[in-house]
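[step 3/7] inverse_fold.run input=structure_tokens len=485
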């Protein structure tokens, strides 16, 4: 469920440590003016503020995957790594972008993005975790702020101008390489050396995190080495190799470091392969028959222990093609094997809605919620099923609690808006839509919607007071956001 997509990323606010200063570019990007070269390192609070601003811009421009099940998996994996990382000073937020290119990036405030294409190239969870651990290290070691300061010592440009060169490459890495080529030889070599130092440091901290989190540390050199070999002579390497170059000495260094850790036999992660199957079925931009062919071919070469993940993937394809009679026996058989599996619960809920049997989904999800009453995947599916049952007021109560607990999840606000539309509550519908706009940094439109909601509410009512208070909050947030530009 919830397979909404957005336009391609026009400009990603991402950590990349491979470009020289480009003051003109910074002006064109309207990047935050965060002081002069002598201003010193950013505070953690400042980094969090910039990270929140960048994330709102990304929601408006990037094809972010708002999939509750995949989000839960990525969040669980990411925080398992964060719990074993050193120097953690910020909260972390993990999210996915629908893009077949191999890439991952991090930016201020502990935000880490994973391209869906990583799942298509990583062969196991440890390989995916190695990339995430590397990005986590970029955040914990504050490489973006340190790189900006390093450049500031060698150029009269402000840090804001320097940020322009650092935040471009994920969206347009070719432009970054062109800028690097155009730089003076001395400045270019200094930046290359600093970048390589940061990359190696991120590898070093990342491997330590992998080990403490119980993953196979050899996955990092294995994955990096395979990427380097595959794209060694490619005319257009993937963005990850442009922003995270893999010279042979770096691959060798990670291999030698990995040898210093005890070898750990890590069993296949069933959830990883379920997540991969979901991406192939829904987010790989391939035709249904191509997805089914991939499942059939890959299953023949895979361990019997993950056979069910291919059945799940095929069932999703059938479900999305509305071939409910073919998907139903597969999903119900999988559910009987593991009734607490959220991948199965989510798919079955959609199946029963498609079959016009929402009560089956309500019964199934109600039982699951008894064990995990606040779980986001279960709650959002439960609310969606209640809406299908026309139990709109009950759905609203669930969604109000959900949006309170998960205010940054656009899915909840979309469903809440739909529910209020069904109830004819135009003011609450406008308020829910305003929250979506605010999450995308569309402040003026959000304030406009809340203003309209306030005008529709009863004069002097608590509801009107709530809307007016939210208008004041949004105006403060807007002013802070605009001050960064």
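[step 3/7] decode complete -> sequence:
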């Amino acid at each position: 469920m919830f397979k909404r997509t957005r336009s391609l990323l026009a400009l990603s606010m991402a950590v990349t440590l491979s470009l020289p200063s480009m003051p003109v570019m910074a002006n064109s990007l309207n990047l935050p003016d965060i002081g002069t070269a002598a201003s010193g390192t950013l505070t953690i609070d400042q980094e969090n503020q910039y990270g929140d601003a960048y994330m709102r811009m990304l929601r408006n421009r990037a094809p972010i995957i708002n999939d509750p099940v995949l989000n839960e998996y990525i969040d669980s994996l990411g925080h398992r790594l964060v719990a074993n990382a050193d120097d953690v000073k910020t909260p972390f937020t993990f999210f996915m972008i629908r893009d077949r290119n191999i890439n991952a990036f991090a930016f201020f405030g502990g935000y880490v993005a994973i391209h869906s294409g990583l799942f298509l190239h990583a062969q196991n969870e440890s390989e995916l975790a190695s990339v995430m651990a590397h990005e986590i290290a970029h955040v914990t070691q504050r490489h973006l702020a340190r790189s900006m300061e390093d450049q500031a010592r060698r150029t009269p440009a402000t840090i804001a101008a320097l940020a322009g060169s650092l935040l471009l490459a994920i969206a347009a890495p070719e432009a970054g390489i062109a800028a690097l080529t155009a730089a003076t030889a001395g400045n270019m070599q200094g930046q290359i050396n600093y970048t390589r130092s940061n990359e190696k440091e991120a590898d070093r901290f990342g491997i330590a995190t992998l080990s403490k989190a119980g993953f196979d540390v050899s996955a990092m050199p294995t994955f990096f080495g395979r990427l380097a070999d595959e794209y060694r002579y490619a005319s257009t390497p993937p963005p990850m190799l442009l922003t995270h170059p893999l010279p042979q000495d770096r691959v060798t260094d990670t291999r030698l470091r990995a040898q210093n850790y005890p070898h750990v036999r890590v069993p296949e992660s069933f959830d990883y392969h379920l997540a991969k199957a979901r991406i192939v079925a829904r987010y790989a931009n391939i035709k249904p028959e191509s997805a089914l062919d991939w499942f059939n071919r890959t299953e023949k070469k895979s361990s019997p222990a993950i056979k069910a993940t291919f059945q799940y993937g095929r069932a999703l394809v059938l479900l999305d093609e509305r071939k409910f009679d073919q998907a139903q026996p597969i999903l119900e058989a999988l559910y009987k094997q593991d009734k607490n599996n959220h991948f199965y619960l989510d798919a079955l809920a959609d199946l029963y809605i498609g079959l016009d049997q929402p009560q089956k989904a309500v019964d199934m999800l109600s039982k699951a919620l008894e064990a995990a009453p606040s779980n986001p995947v279960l709650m959002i599916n439960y609310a969606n099923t209640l809406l299908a049952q026309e139990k709109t007021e009950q759905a609203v109560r669930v969604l109000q609690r959900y949006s309170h607990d998960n205010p940054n999840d656009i899915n909840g606000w979309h469903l809440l808006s739909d529910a209020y539309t069904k109830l004819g509550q135009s003011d609450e519908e406008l308020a829910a839509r305003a929250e979506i706009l605010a999450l995308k940094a569309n402040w003026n439109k959000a304030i406009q919607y809340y203003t309209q909601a306030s005008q529709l509410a009863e004069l002097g009512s608590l509801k009107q007071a709530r809307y007016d208070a939210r208008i004041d909050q949004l105006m403060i947030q807007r002013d802070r956001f605009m001050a960064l530009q």
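[step 4/7] annotate
Residues 2-39, 158-194 have pLDDT under 50 and may be disordered.
Residues 44-259 form one domain.
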